[in-house]
């Protein structure tokens, strides 16, 4: 019953809080509401909540049975008093919360167990497929383990990788694109900490862009971010272009720039959780900019041939997805830096058991974020991490990365052994660079100077004034001459500051030898801080009082970012030590900053500091939970002058390893190594004729121009009729004879706009409906009524095969010659009717990368069915298969896995594909990762020089499982109501995944509807509303 007495005391404390704050909680119903809503209000609550504290203690510390017994006891002893009724109500409510938490933990445990089993099964399947070893591999199978570096060694660039040398790269003219989509990004006066979206990532990408632009061989660096023209923020964030740095003198480069791309609402700031529906709009805007720059750079330094990005680097999940789409469209390597990972955050929130999956997803859009990270892993050639811990403990949680399988595939590639279409992104550890220009020469000098001259009687003779922050810190100390133990972090429980204070307070020799300085953010009033921060600071103050540390511990209320270097200098001048005792430290940037000022360091052994200390060899690692180990390490460094001096020298000697030039050399070396494995094909941009050709023969290229120059002329200058006819026939025949040549490219020069018909019109059996004929004719008729009718091209994009398209057009008397291009098999192939429906070989090569080919067949047939199936439930649909599409026929009524489930299982096996259900879910198209209807249309827009904003998509209210992709972007979308009978979208994703509103913009001005059974006049009216008249 002792446990119940604790519960009773907590419940009484809750009631006391409610009584003392009666004005705030006027009735029992408001207390109950407080209990139910406390987790959702945690981010907004700015004061410490005793109610929340006591409720969490009860829920987290006691078993459900104890709570139930307490409730029974309260019921048995209740009376008519208001307090008794409130106690009963609150007790029941807390018991309900405890049961709810227990259920959440139970469900989460089952989910994690199932996911572990699935990952293990995926790894086993991959290993079975990879078990067929070549003769060369069998001979050296026994020495596989010797080729991998020991796990306790720091990752290094492999010997076959050439280190980036500035001597032989100066003429390469590289164009690099960085993307950081969210937050407030600018080059000067960065508002770091203004909100949760504007933090260290902003500073990192800006400094990276500048550093890369100063590297030999790099011609231009563009940092793409979102343009924000809102009165809520400074007007500088609305400027479309900002120069970050001038090119190095004599380099001939362009420097680095911030390019702000409009997307989403123009007049308000959008937090990162709400940016997901606008991803495709950002992609199209970024694509326009990159194409313009590639063309411009090509004209300047490459003889007119476009200079495409050397690499596209996405930062965070949203920019990672943008980079994946851009890299797929342009066929250039993609690099990803996660910065902060969604699955890691999701797992931590679930383990706490306070919030349901639904609430987490609603607040953070976490499932949408995780899918973006998985997609980024699919497309990424390389993932840049700060530490090895990030690879194993964070990226290891993702379906798309398995460290054991990655190592096995890497060994096979190095030996030239087939990987059977499996890919894993290469994880590389490249610590963030730092700008050491602010470090003064005297900071790196080996001097024995102390503070005597600064705080002694000769202070007035010093010409240089003492920094204000020094005076602010030293006023706390009885003896400021002592060495300073410096800790600098935000007041977060994870930073483990209270353990440091305990270690200092309980070690008398350390207290006698040194002072402790705690820089814990900025505050005016502790009560105005968030509950977590206020608890940490209150505990620190209590410990200072408990151990009587007055005069030995400094805890200033305020400091400026510009004063941080002076804080490090003060600790170094006193021959002090810097400590980071965090429970887990993902990287540890402050450790590098401290080393730059000559401070030895003591750091947690969990996370990034392990790699940092291996590189710098300037301090000691400790267990953050062991107070004795912390005090011993601090005492050892402070008391041993020789050790202190050696650590200082080592830190200053090796700090260049964390400089931006070193970071850029490592970065470009890894990127170059990845490019050697990336079959980049050139993407040509068609030149639009200065004057549009005539409408009469526009669809057969500019034949009239050719034969008019070569034909036989009469004396009056006219061409003989027979000669004209003969030349025309020869020209058409010559076109047909060369139609298979991939080098013959088609540019509809007179086309300045594209009408794309993407209606997925199928009946319940998966057959194309007859209304497709009316849709096509109405769209073309509406186009013919516009003043731009001669400038509009037509594209048909469908999930059907080319044979089925030809058959259906013949059946419904649709003229294929009216189309400039036909996109088939869900975007895996492009055909040109003007070339007798021959496939675009360039596009096939464009989407080939990471395509597993024949290796996908057996795997997808094994995984597609959700339940055991017979042989004829799902079968290969041979007539629809091609080199870039594996089509599967699904019998009606057979339960198959959803797209998200199939993708997950393929990723676990190292297979990167795009999955599309089409023809009313009776067919499954497995196509290359970089292939889709939207990507095919972007490919055509680049080649033909037609901006995506000048395209109009005609679609239905529903469609294939790639339907959502067609709704976002700069193009206009006209939804034809009632045009689609049966769709495939029920197989897109599960209910637990993200919702459509997280992927498609709501109330977009680019989406319009045409009522059911509408004809050409109604379509024309909608076009006129878009300005197409």
UniProtKB/TrEMBL annotation:
<feature type="domain" description="Sucrose synthase first GT-B">
    <location>
        <begin position="175"/>
        <end position="438"/>
    </location>
</feature>
<dbReference type="Pfam" id="PF05116">
    <property type="entry name" value="S6PP"/>
</dbReference>
<comment type="similarity">
    <text>Belongs to the glycosyltransferase 1 family.</text>
</comment>
<dbReference type="Pfam" id="PF00534">
    <property type="entry name" value="Glycos_transf_1"/>
</dbReference>
<dbReference type="GO" id="GO:0046524">
    <property type="term" value="F:sucrose-phosphate synthase activity"/>
</dbReference>
<dbReference type="Pfam" id="PF00862">
    <property type="entry name" value="GT-B_Sucrose_synth"/>
</dbReference>
<comment type="pathway">
    <text>Glycan biosynthesis; sucrose biosynthesis; sucrose from D-fructose 6-phosphate and UDP-alpha-D-glucose: step 1/2.</text>
</comment>
<dbReference type="InterPro" id="IPR001296">
    <property type="entry name" value="Glyco_trans_1"/>
</dbReference>
<keyword id="KW-0328">Glycosyltransferase</keyword>
<protein>
    <recommendedName>
        <fullName>Sucrose-phosphate synthase</fullName>
        <ecNumber>2.4.1.14</ecNumber>
    </recommendedName>
</protein>
<feature type="domain" description="Glycosyl transferase family 1">
    <location>
        <begin position="479"/>
        <end position="651"/>
    </location>
</feature>
<dbReference type="InterPro" id="IPR006380">
    <property type="entry name" value="SPP-like_dom"/>
</dbReference>
<dbReference type="InterPro" id="IPR036412">
    <property type="entry name" value="HAD-like_sf"/>
</dbReference>
<comment type="subunit">
    <text>Homodimer or homotetramer.</text>
</comment>
<feature type="region of interest" description="Disordered">
    <location>
        <begin position="116"/>
        <end position="135"/>
    </location>
</feature>
<feature type="compositionally biased region" description="Basic and acidic residues">
    <location>
        <begin position="116"/>
        <end position="125"/>
    </location>
</feature>
<feature type="domain" description="Sucrose phosphatase-like">
    <location>
        <begin position="787"/>
        <end position="975"/>
    </location>
</feature>
<dbReference type="InterPro" id="IPR035659">
    <property type="entry name" value="SPS_C"/>
</dbReference>
<dbReference type="InterPro" id="IPR044161">
    <property type="entry name" value="SPS"/>
</dbReference>
<comment type="function">
    <text>Plays a role in photosynthetic sucrose synthesis by catalyzing the rate-limiting step of sucrose biosynthesis from UDP-glucose and fructose- 6-phosphate. Involved in the regulation of carbon partitioning in the leaves of plants. May regulate the synthesis of sucrose and therefore play a major role as a limiting factor in the export of photoassimilates out of the leaf. Plays a role for sucrose availability that is essential for plant growth and fiber elongation.</text>
</comment>
<keyword id="KW-0808">Transferase</keyword>
<dbReference type="InterPro" id="IPR012819">
    <property type="entry name" value="SPS_pln"/>
</dbReference>
<dbReference type="InterPro" id="IPR000368">
    <property type="entry name" value="Sucrose_synth_GT-B1"/>
</dbReference>
<dbReference type="InterPro" id="IPR023214">
    <property type="entry name" value="HAD_sf"/>
</dbReference>
<dbReference type="GO" id="GO:0005986">
    <property type="term" value="P:sucrose biosynthetic process"/>
</dbReference>
């Amino acid at each position: 019953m002792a446990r119940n007495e604790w519960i009773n005391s907590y419940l009484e404390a809750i009631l006391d809080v409610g009584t003392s704050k009666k004005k705030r909680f006027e009735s029992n119903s408001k207390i109950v509401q407080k209990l139910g809503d406390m987790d959702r209000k945690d981010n907004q609550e700015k004061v410490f909540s005793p109610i929340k504290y006591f409720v969490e203690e009860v829920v987290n510390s006691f078993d459900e049975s104890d709570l139930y017994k307490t409730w029974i006891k309260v019921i048995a002893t209740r009376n008519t008093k208001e307090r008794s009724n409130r106690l009963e109500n609150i007790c029941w409510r807390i018991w309900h919360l405890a049961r709810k938490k227990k259920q959440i933990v139970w469900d989460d445990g089952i989910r994690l167990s199932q996911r572990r089993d699935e990952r293990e099964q995926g790894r086993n399947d991959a290993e079975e497929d990879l078990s067929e070893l070549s003769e060369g591999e069998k001979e050296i199978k026994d020495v596989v383990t010797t080729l991998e570096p020991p796990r306790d060694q720091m990752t290094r660039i492999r010997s076959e990788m050439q280190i980036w040398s500035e001597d032989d790269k100066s003429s390469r003219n590289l164009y690099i694109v960085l993307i950081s989509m969210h937050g407030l990004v600018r080059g000067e006066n960065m508002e770091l900490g203004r909100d949760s979206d504007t933090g260290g990532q902003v500073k990192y990408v800006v400094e990276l862009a500048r550093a890369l632009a100063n590297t030999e061989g790099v011609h231009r660096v563009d940092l793409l971010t979102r343009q924000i023209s809102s009165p809520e923020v400074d007007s500088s964030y609305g400027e479309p272009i900002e120069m970050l740095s001038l090119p190095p003198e004599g380099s001939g480069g362009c420097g680095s720039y911030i390019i702000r791309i409009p997307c989403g609402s123009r007049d308000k700031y959008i937090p990162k959780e709400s940016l997901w529906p606008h991803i495709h709009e950002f992609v199209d805007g970024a694509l326009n900019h990159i194409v313009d720059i590639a063309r411009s750079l090509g004209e300047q330094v490459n003889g007119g041939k476009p200079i495409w990005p050397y690499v596209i680097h996405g930062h965070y999940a949203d920019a990672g997805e943008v980079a994946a789409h851009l890299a797929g469209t342009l066929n250039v390597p993609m690099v990803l830096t996660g910065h902060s990972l969604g699955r890691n955050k999701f797992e931590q929130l679930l383990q706490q058991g306070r919030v349901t999956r639904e609430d987490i997803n609603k607040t953070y859009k976490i499932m949408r974020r995780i899918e973006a990270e998985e997609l980024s892993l699919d497309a990424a050639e390389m993932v840049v991490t700060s530490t090895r811990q990030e690879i194993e403990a964070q990226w290891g949680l993702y379906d798309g990365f398995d460290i054991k399988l990655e190592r096995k595939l890497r060994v096979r590639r190095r030996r030239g052994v087939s990987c059977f279409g499996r890919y894993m992104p290469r994880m590389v550890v490249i610590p963030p660079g730092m700008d050491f220009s602010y470090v003064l020469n005297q900071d790196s000098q080996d001097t024995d100077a102390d503070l005597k001259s600064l705080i002694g009687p000769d202070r007035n003779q010093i010409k240089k004034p003492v920094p204000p922050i020094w005076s602010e810190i030293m006023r706390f100390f009885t003896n400021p001459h002592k060495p300073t133990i410096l800790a600098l972090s935000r007041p977060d429980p994870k930073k483990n500051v209270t353990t440091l204070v305990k270690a200092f307070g309980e070690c008398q020799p350390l207290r006698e030898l040194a002072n402790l300085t705690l820089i814990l953010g900025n505050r005016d009033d502790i009560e105005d801080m968030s509950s977590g921060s206020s608890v940490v600071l209150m505990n620190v103050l209590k410990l200072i009082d408990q151990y009587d540390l007055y005069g030995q511990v400094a805890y200033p209320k305020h400091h400026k970012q510009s004063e941080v270097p002076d804080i490090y200098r003060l600790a170094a001048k006193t021959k002090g030590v810097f400590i980071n005792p965090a429970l887990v430290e993902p990287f540890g940037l402050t450790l590098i900053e401290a080393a730059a000022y000559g401070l030895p360091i003591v750091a947690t052994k969990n996370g990034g500091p392990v790699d940092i200390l291996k590189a710098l060899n300037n301090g000691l690692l400790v267990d953050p939970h062991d107070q004795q180990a912390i005090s011993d390490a601090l005492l050892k460094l402070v008391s041993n002058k020789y050790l202190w001096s050696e650590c200082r020298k080592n830190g200053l000697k090796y700090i260049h390893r964390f400089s931006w030039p070193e970071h850029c050399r490592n970065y470009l070396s890894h990127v170059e190594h990845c490019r050697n494995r990336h079959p980049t094909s050139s993407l040509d941009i068609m030149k639009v004729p200065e004057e549009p050709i005539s409408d009469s023969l526009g669809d057969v290229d500019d034949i009239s121009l050719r034969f008019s120059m070569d034909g036989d002329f009469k004396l009056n200058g006219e061409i003989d009729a027979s000669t004209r006819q003969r030349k025309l026939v020869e020209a058409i025949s010559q076109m047909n004879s060369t139609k298979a040549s991939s080098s013959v490219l088609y540019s509809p020069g007179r086309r300045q706009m594209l009408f794309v018909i993407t209606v997925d019109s199928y009946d319940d059996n998966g057959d194309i409906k007859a209304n497709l004929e009316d849709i096509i004719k109405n769209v073309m008729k509406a186009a013919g009524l516009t003043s731009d009718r001669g400038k509009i091209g037509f594209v048909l994009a469908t999930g059907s095969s080319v044979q089925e398209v030809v058959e259906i057009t013949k059946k419904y008397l649709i003229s294929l010659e009216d189309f400039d291009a036909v996109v088939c098999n869900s975007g895996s192939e492009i055909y040109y009717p003007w070339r007798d429906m021959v496939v675009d070989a360039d596009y096939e090569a464009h989407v080939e990368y990471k395509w597993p080919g024949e290796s996908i067949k057996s795997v997808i047939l094994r995984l597609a069915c959700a339940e055991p199936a017979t042989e004829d439930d799902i079968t290969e649909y041979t007539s629809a298969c091609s080199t870039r599409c594996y089509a599967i026929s699904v019998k009606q009524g057979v339960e198959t896995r959803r797209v998200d489930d199939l993708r997950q299982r393929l990723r676990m096996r190292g297979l990167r594909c795009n999955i599309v259900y089409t023809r009313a879910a009776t067919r499954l198209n497995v196509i290359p990762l970089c292939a889709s209807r939207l990507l095919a249309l972007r490919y055509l827009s680049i080649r033909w020089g037609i901006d995506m904003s000048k395209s109009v998509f005609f679609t239905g209210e529903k469609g294939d499982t790639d339907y959502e992709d067609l709704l976002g972007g700069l193009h206009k979308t006209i939804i034809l109501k009632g045009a689609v009978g049966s769709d495939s979208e029920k197989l897109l994703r599960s209910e637990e995944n993200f919702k459509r509103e997280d992927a498609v913009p709501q109330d977009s001005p680019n989406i319009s509807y045409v009522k059911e059974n509408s004809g050409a006049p109604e379509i024309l009216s909608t076009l006129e509303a878009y300005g197409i008249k």
